[in-house]
Amino acid sequence: MMLFMDIFIFAILMVACGAAGATGAVFQPGPWYQSLAKPAWTPPNWVFPVAWTTIYLCISFAGARVAGMDGSGTAMAFWTMQAALSTLWTPVFFGLRRLKGALLVMGPLLIAVLGCTVSMFQLDTLAGIAFLPFMAWITVAAALNASVARLNPDVAPRDMSD
C-alpha cells in the first residue's frame, strides 16, 4: 500500500529546491533587470517568490509521491534534470547577464519539466497534477526570457574580469 508520500524524501527534495531557490538570493535581479525593456505582460515582482514557493512545494510533493514506486526512474531523472537546470538558469541570466545564453538553459529545462510532468502522470495522477503549475510557469518564464532577449539585443554580458 502506497503512503500519501514519504516525508523524508519530501524534505530532501525541498532542500534541493531550496538550493535552486538560493541562486535567486545570490543573483538578485536588482536595478540591472529593472532597467531592461520587458513585455507588457511581465508578471509583477511580487508574483515570482509566490510562484516559486508554490512550485517548490508542489514538485517536492510530486517527487515524494513517486520516488519509491516501481518504474519511477525516468520521472526522478527528469526531476533531477529540472532541478539542475533551474539552478543554472538564474546565474546565467542574472549573474552573467547572458540573455540568449539563458535561453540555451531554458530549452532543456522546458523539456525536463515536460518530461517530468508526463512521467509523473504515468505513475500517479496527483503527482502529475502537482507538476502542472511548474509546466505553466516555466512556459511563461521561457516566453519572458525570449522576449527580454529580443527587446534588449544590445545588453552586454557582465564583465567578469574584475
Number of domains: 1
Number of helices: 6
Strand content: under 5%
Shape: elongated
Along the chain, the helix and strand elements come as HHHHHH
Briefly note the structural class of the backbone.
Answer: mainly alpha
How does the major sheet shape up? none
User: Which runs of at least 5 residues are low in confidence (pLDDT < 50)?
Assistant: none
User: How much is the radius of gyration in Å?
Assistant: 17 Å
C-alpha end-to-end distance:
58 Å
- The tally of strands reads 0
- Kindly report the average pLDDT value: 92
> What is the percent of helical residues?
over 70%
Describe what this molecule looks like in 3D.
The protein is mainly α and 162 residues long. The protein has one domain. 75% of the residues lie in helices and 0% in strands. It has 6 helices and no strands. It has helices at residues 7-26, 30-35, 47-66, 73-95, 99-123, 125-151. α4 (73-95) packs antiparallel against α5 and α5 packs antiparallel against α6. The radius of gyration is 17 Å and the shape is elongated.
